[in-house]
Amino acid sequence: MKLKSIPVALSLLCALLLPGCGGQDRTLQSMTVDGGSTTAVPRNAQVTFTASGQFDMAPMNVNPVAASWAEFGPGIDPVGGTAYSLSTQPFIFTCFLPGTFTVVAFAPADPKAAATGTVPQQVYQDLVGSRTMSAEGGFVAATAQVTCQ
After folding, report:
1. Which of the listed residues 3, 71, 93, 122 has the most CB atoms within 10 Å of its CB?
2. What is the pLDDT of residues 69-99, one digit of tens each?
3. Among residues 77, 57, 72, which one has the least CA distance to residue 106?
4. Handedness of CA 113, 115, 118, 122 (dihedral sign)
């Protein structure tokens, strides 16, 4: 009879004392966008961006992390509304117009979230539209800039 209670006791001990074996889920805490340039990029040149994610549990750093992308700048009207579509593929920005452009990577904090979905309107506005927050409402975002000649 005592042998049957050992697996139960070990399971409880594992769940309470060892975070890695208790079935806890990782959460995306922050992101960074790699790429871009501080120098002027020639017209029609392409700049490659990738997103890295920092999680609260191992593996702590993931590069690339699945993200959705948006771009803002002179002559660009944001498209796509509050929808997201996650991909680990790099984001390729082409300098069609002169000016400084902002590239935004954003993703759900839950790495098990659906690959496509929508972001609540206010969260999207704060993270992507105005870029006043880097994490809100279960989503995380990061930005980079590129200056085109």
Report:
1. 93
2. 999 988 776 666 789 999 999 999 999 999 9
3. 72
4. positive
